[in-house]
Write a structure and sequence with these properties.
This protein is of the alpha/beta class and 339 residues long. Helix content is 37%, strand content 14%. The mean pLDDT is 96.
Length: 339
């Protein structure tokens, strides 16, 4: 019988896998549930858990310990590691893939939900939701008289929208934009002519060109050494007055000091779900800035959507056992591009 080790904290398991999926998993093999394992678990202790379970399949998720190359060498029977969530690097070391371990994650499953968050943030920024909520709730005010043009709501229809990166989430976001008839520009090293036709997008040859031409730029690229602070003062200065920056990707992609400076000048607007420092400190200069919507890194799949990730994981186990091709298998080059 296939042996399966689920090495993830209880709260992660509860968030991602319903009772029905747990029961389905148990119908597929001999399951060992180790909800006491987490990111603080020492490698030696994780090794003991693996030695006891001797799993053919490992299931991990948020806050699980990391499977190292040494641990994999000690467990040659382990053939498949399934991550319930998207990030893989914290949970499976690169040398495991080099040694031939098959690794999968949630793949396309949460993309539409994250894209929904990006669309919500885009519309909220354009409609100046932050300002009007403060006016209505805190200041007990109504419309300005005379009206202040800075806080005049805008629509998404017929705008030029830029996508920095064109992965799974960006593609879902592009599809969601279609009813608004935008012009969509993309800066990405990973886009084919077929992609451009399918999603109705155009490409630009530099990040600066993307920011210079767009009313809205949504960041969907990975957090890598080459993208660190790639949205810097020079790039932000290229953006037209009244432009909107949306970030649901990773905070370090944006030079925070440069963005704060632009927002203080009142030239740009931003909607941010991710930050260089998380949780965002109470006294952070982004807090309280006009024209800046802040979210506490909750743009990922919503709670009512997350259980699809558990369904996907059990589906992968079924595919593996039956010899069917796996979905969302992580290749080495993809691993290196991931956040």
């Amino acid at each position: 019988m296939t042996r399966i080790l689920v090495a993830t904290p209880q709260d992660t398991l509860d968030a991602l896998m319903r009772k029905s999926e747990r029961e389905r998993l148990e119908s597929l093999g001999d399951v060992v549930w180790r909800t006491d394992l987490n990111r603080q678990t020492a490698e030696e202790a994780y090794g003991l858990a693996l030695a006891e379970a001797r799993p053919d399949i490992l299931v991990s998720g948020w806050a699980s310990p990391c499977l190292t190359g040494r641990l994999l060498q000690d467990n040659p029977q382990l053939k498949l590691a399934i991550n319930l969530t998207g990030e893989v690097k914290k949970y499976v070391a690169r040398e495991c893939l080099e040694q031939g371990l098959t690794v999968t994650n949630w793949g396309d499953v949460p993309a539409a939900s994250v894209a929904e968050a990006a669309l919500m943030m885009t519309l909220a920024s354009l409609r100046k939701v932050y300002h009007w909520q403060c006016e209505m709730h805190r200041n007990k005010a109504w419309r300005s008289d005379p009206p202040d043009p800075r806080w005049t709501p805008q629509g998404l229809f017929d705008k030029t929208v830029g996508l920095y990166g064109f992965g799974r989430i960006a593609r879902e976001y592009a599809l969601m934009l279609k009813p608004f008839n935008p012009r969509i520009l993309v800066f990405s090293g990973w886009i084919t002519p077929e992609d451009k036709t399918r999603y109705g997008v155009e490409t630009v040859d530099s990040l600066k060109a993307l920011f210079a031409q767009c009313d809205i730029v949504a960041i969907h690229t990975g957090n890598r050494p080459d993208t660190l602070h790639s949205v810097n003062a020079d790039i932000l200065a290229a953006m037209k007055d009244g432009g909107h920056l949306i970030n649901t990707a990773r905070g370090p992609i944006v030079d925070t000091d440069a963005l704060v400076a632009e927002l203080k000048h009142g030239r740009l607007f931003a909607a941010l779900d991710v930050f260089e420092e998380e949780p965002l400190p109470a006294d952070h200069p982004l807090r309280g800035l006009d024209g800046c919507l802040l979210f506490p890194h909750q743009g990922g799949p919503t709670q009512d959507y997350r259980f699809r990730c558990g369904v996907n994981a059990v589906d992968q186990v079924e595919r593996h056992i039956s010899g069917e091709p796996l979905k969302y298998r992580i290749a080495l080059d993809q691993y290196d591009r991931m956040t």
